[in-house]
Every structure is written in C-alpha cells, then in structure tokens.
Amino acid sequence: MLTLLGLGLLALAVLAGLGAAGLGRRLVPLGAAAVAAVLGAVAMATLALGPVEEAALALGPPWGPALVALDALSAWFLLVLAVVALPAALFAAATGPSSRAEAAAFPLFLAAMVLVLLAADAFTLLLGFEAMSLASWALVAARHPSGRGRRAARLYFGFAAFSGLCLIAGFALLSAPGMGFSEMRAAPPEGWRGTLALVLILLGAGSKAGLLPFHLWLPLAHPAAATPVSALMSGAMVKIALYVLVRALFDLAGAAQPGWWGAPLVVLGAATALWGAIRANVETDIKAILACSTLENVGLITLALGLALVFRGADLAPLAALALSAALLHALVHAGFKGLLFLVAGAVAEQAGSRDPDRLGGLIHRMPWVAGLAMLGAASAAALPPFSGFASEWLVLQALIQSWRVAELPVQLLSAAALVTAGMALALAAAAMLRFVGLVFLGRPRTPRAAGALDVTGLMRAALVVAGAVCAALALLAAPALGLAGGIVTGLLGEGAAPPIAGLDLMLGEAGARYAPWAVTALLAGLALALWYGLHRKGAPEPRRSPAWDCGFLPPPPDLPFGDPLTQPSAAGAAQPIRRALGGLALAQREAHHPAAPGSATPARLRVEARDHGFVALLWPLGRLRRLAGHQAERLRGLPLSAYLALALGTLVLLLALLAWGAVA
Amino acid sequence: MTGPGDIAYDVAHLLGGAMLLVGFVMLGQRRIGALIAALAAQGVLLALAAFWQGHVQAAPQLYLTGLIALLAKGIAIPLVLHRLAGELPPPLRTEAPGRMGAGLVLGVGLVGLAMLVVVPATTGAGALARVDLSMALSILLLGALMMVTRRSALAHVAGLLTIENGLILAAVGVAGMPLVVELSAGGLVLVVALIAGVFARQMRERFASLDPGVLDRHRGEGR
C-alpha cells in the first residue's frame, strides 16, 4: 500500500515538473485524476483490510528518517481527499490550467495533502502542511497578479503563516518525548503543557480550517482560485486541517485528557457554523456563497468533535462514538457535495460567463445537466432527507440532544445553547442553498449571455457526473460508509465504542432513534410517483396557462424578451430579509437610502455596505499594531555604534544565560 | 588525564588566568598607551599558552600558532597601534572619565556567566579543556564588553583583538584542532586589524577625533 502511495507521490512530482515545463496541458490534470482514483482505492482497501504499519523512509531530516504510516484515520481522510480530487482533476483537465505556475502547483498541492495524511512523525506532518499552504497560496496568487484577488492571496498567506507557526509550537510541546507519533502517544502531555498544546493546535489547525475568529481569509481566498482548486481547498484542505486537529487532540494527546478540552471546540464550532450560514445568505458571488457554506460545515464538524471530547472525558463511550462518527461522516459527505457544488459553480461561470447571480438566472432551461446536479448538491447541503447531508447532520443533532446524559450542569447548558445555534445554522444553510439555486437556475435569464449559455459536455460533464454519483451514493450508503470508520472509532475511543449503525441504517442503541435512508428514499420516491401518476390520470390532459398573481412575476411582455428585470428579485434583494434580521450578528453593515429627486424618473437606490466583524475587531487592530511595531523598529536604525555593539553583546549574554539556566534546570 | 597538582594543568591554568587578568587590566585602563601595552602582554601570554599546549599535546603545529601569535599580536600589531596612538594629540590619548567601575563589575558578572555555561556543558571533557574553554569564553566576553563601553576607535580595535585572543586560546586548548582553522582565523584578524588601523587613521585626519560617535551625524539619513 505504502509503495503504491509512494509511487503516486512520485507521479505527482513528475506531473508537477511537466506542468512547470508547460507540457501536457491535459495530461497533467488527467494524471492527477488517475492518482486520485488510486488514492481512493488505497484508502478503501486500508479501511476494509486494516492499517498499514509504520515504515521509515530512506530520506528525512538530519536527525532521523521520515516515518510514514497509513492507519484508519489517515485512510478515512485520504478517502475524503480522493472524493474531491478525482472530479476536480477531471474538471481541471476540461478547462486546462491558465498558467505554467498553476499547472505545476496543482499536483504539488495534492501531493502535499497526501504527505500530511501519510506522516507518522511531527516533522513530516508539518512539512506536508506547510507545503500544502504554500502550494494553495501559489494557486490563488498565480491567477491574480494584482488587485482584489492578490490581496485575498496575501491575507491567506498571512493566516497560513500564523497557522503554521502555531502548529509548529503545538507539536513541539507534544513531541517532547520524540518526533515519532508512537513516542508521542506513549508520553502524552499533562498539566499546563497539555493545555498550551490544546490552545496552540486549536489556533493552528483552526485558522487553517476557518474557525472563528480566523475565518476571514476563507470566503475571500477560496473563490479567488480556479474552480478545481476552490473545490479542493473547500472540500479537502479544510478537512486536512481538521485531520491534524483530530490526530493531535484525540490520538497523540492520549485518551486521558479532561472533558473540558471539548468545550472550546463546541463553542467555536457552533459560532462558526452560525456565522458561516448567515454570511452564505448575504454573499453575492456564487463561489463565495459556497465558501461561506464551507465555514458552516466546518463549524458543525468541529462542534461534533468537541462533543466527542466532552463525552470521552465523561466516560460515555457510546455517545463519544456517536459524536465522532457524526464528525467523520460529515467530513466525507461535505467533501462530496461541496466538491460537486464548486464544480457546478465553475461550470456556470465557464458557460454563462459570470459568477454574479444578478447576471445569471433561468439556467435550468439551457443547462439541464448542470442544474440537475446543482440541485442534488444543494439538497445535500441543505440536509434534506434522503440526500447525503441529512444522515450526518442528523447524527450531529442526535449527539447534541443526547448530551443531557453528561451529569455536569455547565455541559448541559453549553450543549443546549449549541443545539439551538446549530439548528439555526442548519436552517440558514438550507435558506442559502435555496437562494443559490433559485437565483442561478430558476426564474428568467437576467442577461443575454445567460440566455445563450450552453450545457456542459465531454470531460466537464464527466467530472460533474462523477461528483454527483459520489454524492448520491453517499446518500444511500451512509451506514456502510460509516462502517468503514469503525477502526477509527475503536482506535480512538477504546474497544467498547462502535459507530451507530445497523445494517444499512443509522441507529442509536437498540431502542434509540433510527434513520433508514433506503426506506425514506423509497417512500419519497413512491409518493412522488403517486403524485405524478395522479396528476397525469386525474389532472387536465393539456397544460393550461392562466393569469396568476405569482408574486408579481409576469410573463415577458413582447417589448422585453427577457422580461422586466424588476419583476425578479436580485441577489441582494433575496438576501435582504435575513440580512436585516440576523446579518448584524456576523456583519457590520451600513445602509444608505438614495431616493430619486422629485420629478426625476430614475429609480430610488438602496446602497448596502457589509463587512465582517472580524475585519473591524481583529484585522484592523492587528494592522495598526504592525504599523506601530514598524515605527518602533525604525528607531533601531538611528542608534549609535556602541548601542549596536551592546545589542550584539546583550543578545549573546542572553543566549548564554538561557543555556546556563537550561543546564541548571 | 590532568587535574590540579599536575604541572601541565597548572601552567595552562596560570597562563589562561594571566590572560584573563590582563583582560581586566585593559577593561579598567584609561590611557591608550597602557592599553596597547596590555594588549601586547596578552598576545605574548597567548603565544606562551600555545607553546605550552604544543608541548603538552606533543603537537608541533601549535608551536607555529604560538610563533604567529608572538610575532603578530605580541609585537607587530601593538607596534603599529603604538605609532598610531603616538600621532594623536595628547588630550586624545586618554579616555573620558566615568563608567569604569561599572564596566569592571559587569566583567566579573560575565566571567561568572561563562563558568556557569561552560562547566555544565562540558561534563564529558577533561578538566584542562573545561577550564581552558571557560577562560577563553570569559576573555571573549570581556573583549566584547570593552568594545561596548569604550569610546575610542583604538580601544575598539583592542577589544576586537581581545575577542580573537579568546578564540585562539579556546582553539589551542582543544586537542586535535586542525592548523588551517587557526591560520585562517589569525589571517582574518590580521586583515580586520589592518582595516581598523587604516580606518582609525582616516578618522583622526578627517574629524580630529577617534570617537566613532562623531560618525553618527554623517550617515546621510537626515537625522
């Protein structure tokens, strides 16, 4: 297995070289797709057959060989990666890279993510993580030599550097006994060292996954990349960050950590979920809507992980297994539908020429394939039964509902608040998906370009269909998929824990709640068939057009072939009720009303400026601090010669004193 | 292999200690002429230490090191510096008063720090190497401290040469140090001393002062 994966990594490196040389515009992404398929197969085989033992590579850092291994947890996230990477690479082959830098960075990005998952020592893991950050930054920056996209790339780079530094410090604390994972497991951190490691890992992995308050870069950087890269960043890269979180907090820090470790994860997860869901309802770029929905899903997964930690600390192994299974399943399912939705958004941008919903609309008539797959993805993201998002979000909610079994009152209050927040986030996410589909695919085209869009064909259609097929399969096969994760649950939580499945159903205990995807699907399909049949048999034989109020949405008059644009809601208009009711939670907004002058025929205008609270509360003070520090550092240049010498001597003495203190301690 | 009571250890200890003492003399010396004389004495002591180590370790290349130290640091460089100092007008041949006592106290602190660092860090090595290394580090730190506390450019040169003396003392104290390292370090310092001498001469001609502080106004940054 490891040999196969090593060959895959080598192939990706060769592909990166080809891409850098400007050769094989189609070959490079197609090769990446083949490698992704192999990754998926290896991951499934490992999950089914058992983990691969640790192996030492012939190369590595100066103090020892690099260690690689593939246990159940790594294999699960490898599967998550493959689920996004395969259709994304196919889509990339259909569109082709825009530059040589992009062609070279795409396989490197994939390879770095695989390296993070394969690593069995702290150095290799951090190496892969940093390479992943750099490659993804390069992919964003290569498309935008200047302007707004470049600023987003710079912001992303800043956050990635911060995350890398925090992770290095956190793993340094964990790896006091040694760099290898087995050595770390043998001597888990205790006391203040453990707490500091928790904080640092949460900051590092959290800022990469987009947890509050380090989410600011995500809705800017993810949409700025090329479509396949956006899909990979949103579907897979944030999961790699969550993998690091799970690896460090569940596995390396040992099973004996206290239950309150989960509390910050629950709080941050719930807050991020609500924040992302609110912002997804307000964005006016279809890829930004999807990126904000990623925030919501990352929040849910983190919430479930935090619950699992709380339950584990309270010795409630079955409930911890439930929460951990929910997190793992949602990570996989989200990869499926978010990959699909990003590729759909890319196809729309490619074929209809815009990502602004105000320039789209009515695409269901011109692009039936894309529209159908988009609705499949949106229904999954909105967690409608029987689509794929429902099973995992049902598990998350069940875990939250069951948390009254923890005896402590603070935990009960916290989880009750988290339940309310998560419920709100789920409803808002469904509203965001409704707005997405409604604005882009339903109604009438808003521009001639949208009216003339053509459906996807060839490789692009294949990419979308593959992603859709994965999404649909996960809807029906949620329980068997979760069964593959059994090794993770028992490995992290002890022998007594198992995923909550029974055959093809998800089930909480013998007498608990139960969700049978097959039965629900069959029931809904039967109802739909009966409705269709009844309408055809009992309804009117011919469709009849008759005037209706229809919210003022009139058929197009003869002088306006696309209809009166004012009869269709705009993106901002559709967002307005939720923005006014809840937007203030996440956004600092300002509305300016410009009425038309008396007697003028121009329409009144409502101008809305909305900005994430994070910019005002976090980023701008940080910028001011940086300028202040810069000014202070500038004063160093004016020092006299003896002061420079004194600085050098002082540093030397300080280091020597540190050395002497270390020798004494 | 050696310890207190053994002649090899005692003589090496004596020479290193004498160098350290001369370092303190330089730190507390206001007159440039006396400072240069002390530097010459330190160079001679270094040469003797190198000869002694060559004898103890039966390493003939250390005699060469000692010879270079004697010729360059004991004779040539002090002569040149002496001539430079002789060209100075008499008021510039002494340092301005003040801060000497604090400098000496700081120097004692640095010696203590050097002991604290070296002694635990070299538990595996022989007693000779340990004491040698701690004294070498002390001399090095004293030289750096002299560069910080003194105002005259010639004193800066003397401080730099003291640092280098400390380095060479450390190098000769460790058995098996290749000759090429000592030679290159010695050559480097010779070049630095040359440049510093030329610089000090230019400075005196241009500004009639050896205080590098007068240069601060000429850095072209519009302060």
From TrEMBL, chain B:
GO terms for molecular function: oxidoreductase activity. The chain crosses the membrane at residues 6-27, 34-55, 61-81, 102-121, 127-146, 153-177, 183-200. It comes from the Bacteria. It is found in: Cell membrane. It is a multi-pass membrane protein. The keyword ATP-binding does not apply. Its EC number is 1.-.-.-. It is an enzyme of class 1 (oxidoreductase). GO terms for cellular component: plasma membrane. Its main location: membrane. InterPro entries: HyfE-like (IPR038730). Keywords: Cell membrane, Membrane, Oxidoreductase, Transmembrane, Transmembrane helix. The keyword Magnesium does not apply. This is Hydrogenase-4 component E.
